[in-house]
Design goal:
CATH class of the largest domain: Alpha Beta
Distance between the termini: 28 Å
Strand order of the largest sheet: 3-2-1-4-5
Largest sheet: 5 strands, mixed
Shape: globular
CATH superfamily of the largest domain: Ribonuclease H-like superfamily/Ribonuclease H
Order of helices and strands: EEEHEHEHHHHHHHHHHHHH
Number of domains: 2
Number of helices: 15
CATH architecture of the largest domain: 2-Layer Sandwich
Helix content: 40-55%
Number of strands: 5
Length: 294
């Protein structure tokens, strides 16, 4: 078995930069400087090895990053956050809280935010990084014993197994469109423009490797949606968006608005799910199940 965690810089880039990998084994703790060591094939082979158990906390973020950067799909995973959720902790429980309750150890919290691109790395940040993996083996043992007592090992395993399927990491390019409830209030033309606007933002972010929010903040999406067809005067009267932002992109947005609708775009819009009606009985059932698991 190994336990591991990753530290990365995601707030400045579309594709996060992996800054550090911490690995705990039976014998030692290893810190891999991924800005200096680019060849991670041996580590990635361990992540993919079905004979080697991987212990993480909230590991979906780590595995998503490894898939994005290297195409790695893990095998034989155990996650302390998932396990804790099946033995009485509110989900998702923080690492520090679980360590404190299970191991009676209080973790330092002062360096939970660090610049993992900076070199040399702050020694205090390295101490924090070590603590992130140091207690994973002991947590695995305690939580596994609790899962067995509750006869819920298979429940946790079923949840972890989702991470071991390549489809888990496939991202729907229209995810934001599908998740926006406003789409149900739009006419056909507005739906097409909203879809194009989201796609334009992603493409700009990818090409420059900057966050989508740097291209266009999400809070401005509705403003752009309403004002683009009206031109400069619509933006001037709206006043919720800085003039420099809409002036920079208005020409492109208007082209997106005017372009003919393609068959492919129609097909995407046909897949938008209908809004679910309120179902008090379902909400009550979910609440009951939550208390049962807890």
């Amino acid at each position: 078995w190994i336990g591991f965690d990753t530290e990365f810089v995601g707030e400045k880039y579309f594709v996060p930069v992996l800054g550090l990998v911490q690995v705990v084994s039976e014998d030692a703790i290893f810190l891999i400087d991924t800005l200096k060591i680019k060849d991670l094939r041996k580590f990635l082979a361990i992540v993919e090895d079905p004979a080697m158990l991987k212990i993480t906390h909230a590991g979906d973020n780590d595995y998503r990053l490894l898939f994005t950067l290297f195409g790695t799909v893990p095998n034989n995973t155990f996650d302390t956050q998932i396990a804790a959720g099946f033995v009485g902790y509110n989900y998702p429980a923080g690492f520090g809280k679980i360590v404190e309750k299970e191991l009676r150890v209080n973790l330092a919290k002062s360096h939970t935010v660090a610049d993992w691109e900076a070199r040399p790395i702050d020694p205090k940040a390295l101490e924090y990084a070590i603590e992130d993996v140091k207690y994973l083996p002991a947590l695995h043992e305690r939580l596994t014993n609790k899962l067995r007592r509750h006869k819920r090992e298979s429940w946790a395993r079923e949840e972890n197994r989702k991470w071991e399927d390549r489809s888990f990491y496939q991202v729907d390019p229209h995810k934001e469109l599908m998740a926006n409830d406003v789409v149900h209030q739009l006419d056909f033309r507005e739906k097409v423009f909203l879809m194009r606007l989201y796609r334009w933002r992603i493409e700009r972010a990818m090409s420059s490797n900057i966050p989508k929010e740097t291209v266009l903040q999400s809070r401005y999406i509705s403003t752009v949606l309403r004002a683009t067809k009206g031109g400069p005067n619509a933006f001037k009267s709206n006043r919720t968006m800085h003039e420099g932002v809409w002036k920079k992109h208005l020409e492109v947005w208007q082209e997106l608005w005017k372009a003919p609708v393609t068959d492919a775009e129609k097909a995407v819009l046909d897949t938008i799910p209908k809004p679910l009606p309120e179902d008090p009985e379902r909400e009550w059932t979910m609440e009951l199940l939550y208390h049962f698991v807890k």
